[in-house]
Amino acid sequence: MKKKRVSAVLFKKSILTALLVVAAIALVAGAAFAKKPTTYLAPQYQVPLSPENAFISVAPAANAQGQPESVSITNEFEKLEVARPSGFKVVPFEGAGEYAKEAIPYLLKSEEMLDSAKLRVIARMIKYDLIKKSGNEKYAEFYKQYVNSPIACFVGLSLGTGPACGQIPAYLPLKDGKNFFFSTLTIIEDIPKLFLVTDAIKNDTFDLVVAHENAHGIMFDMYGSQMGVVEKKSNMGHDGPVISDRGLAYIEGWAEAFEALYGPTNPLLKLKEEEREKYRISEFLFTRQDPVRRDRYIWQTTKKKTGILKNGLQIVSTEGAVAGVFYDILTSRAIKDPFIKSISVMYSHRPKDFIGFLKGWVKDFPEDKRVLYRIFLEGTNYATVSNKARGLYHDYYQAKLKYVQKKMDQKEFYPIKEKWTSYKEELFNTVMQQDNIDANIGPDLWMKVGVIPGAPDHKDLNVNLSTVTPGLLANLQLNGLTDEDVIKMIQAREAMGVLPFKTASEALKNFLGEQKANQVISENKITDF
After folding, report:
1. Domain ranges of the chain
2. Could you report the per-residue pLDDT of 400-423, keeping only the tens digit for each?
3. CB-neighbour burial class of residue 438 (10 A; exposed 0-12, middle 13-18, buried 19+)
């Protein structure tokens, strides 16, 4: 077996290149609306799936030179499933590391993970039906044999990614001389100081991590070779409350919604924060449960009850906010088969972001328009439609706090509440007529910052002037940009709502004046991106 395994260094380099199109997680948690997992998300598809057929642990095979054995993708239908021209030959392998013997057996016993695996099979069944309806019988016949494919895993290979799922093609040789094709690989490994597989197995959160990754796999299955249409431009990390970009927030928001579906099955995730370390539960697994289910990541901060909303573009660029709406959609009892419709939209439209997903849904399932819009707009407090709505919601939220605390009487509170509720109903009626759910989502204004005085070890950070927070902008300590400049820029942006500029440099010149903007651009090696 050891002779067939590839050099760890060589394979790590190869796999990291492949993972440029991966939805690597670094964060995952759990959550659910029920006390037990259920294919309630797709009740008409109760698929028989034996646990032993749900997962397979593999490792890369090596050629005579000890390098990963690459396999060119020549089959026309396999090319439709992945975005890479080649893949890797793999062989069965139990895994490496202290948790190798525990990881797969644990997953096979997890009701949550088996439910997730069933959902992936169901998603492929839907894709097969859609392919067949398109009239492409040859493609349908090809895809039919992969509907029940197990989830292929790399266990403990220390690739440096942390838990991840990527569109990495793999070929497993069979006894009849043929190769079994996998379009994705799920990587199971530690994140030093943040997440340890052994601990996650012991505190029963490991299945939530893998279910998150498997949700990525479901999306990859639907997009196939077109996954690249979802652009990921941010390069400063991601997490539930973090503003990244539209594409990454859409990808990660979908996966985090499944954390919110399965998490409450673990009673440890209901403990208080101070009890978390006792059970060695990873912080990122613990902290984003409630905020996702309660749509709290639409706020500028979840640490204080301010009621200050992010702007429209910030919301759809925040994975936790997108996860919250996905969760609300998937658990809606007013929408028939929300999971089936979700993956159908992904396959049929290959949306570039969450707004594209919603528009694709309304196009294919117009009967859901009123409910879908209501879920989205109520979950985001209409910030994606109107900048004025952000202010009125803040006024209402603050008044409600005072009213509940008996610091404001009913006579003073109710006019504020009425002003907010009547305005949002006007907005809803307008959206139903005009479908302008993104009326207050401005353009992305990306700039690449070559010199970062506040982080001298970094360079070429991608910063979006339409979404960057004042804290981040100040921490960069850009040459020529004072704290007063930062405040001025953010205040001007928030007042405008939708920025009228076409580039970041144009925006900087408007905010700072041309002379100062040119100085900032020059001294920090800023270019429009």
Report:
1. 43-198+214-224, 375-434, 446-528
2. 999 999 999 999 999 999 999 999
3. buried
